[in-house]
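The instructor's notes for this session suggest beginning with a concrete chain rather than abstract definitions. Hand out the sequence below and ask the class to guess, before any prediction is shown, which regions might be ordered.
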Amino acid sequence: MENSMMLILGAVLCIMAIVNMKGNISTIHSYNRKNVKEEDILKYGKMVGSGTLVIGIALIVSYILPFAGMEHWKNVVMIPALAAGLALIVYGQIKYNKGLF
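After discussion, reveal the predicted structure:
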């Protein structure tokens, strides 16, 4: 069941990321997007969406790895991907929202 939840969460995050990358940032909390200028919405959505997509794909890959006999590689994939995804999200927040909140 744990692995199934990783797959579902990864798929949901990938869908949300694609929506954000197309310029619809309504899935992001209002306080996280309140200071984003109108002309920066697409750039902000692409930055936050990219970070979300990295995390979503990492969850899906971590779901698949045990079936390939690579259970021990889950952390090798997840930790750097989570760090990279969060770094993209935080960078986008600071650059386009002028702060984290």
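Then share the key points. The chain has one domain: 2-97. Helices lie at 2-21, 30-33, 41-64, 74-97.
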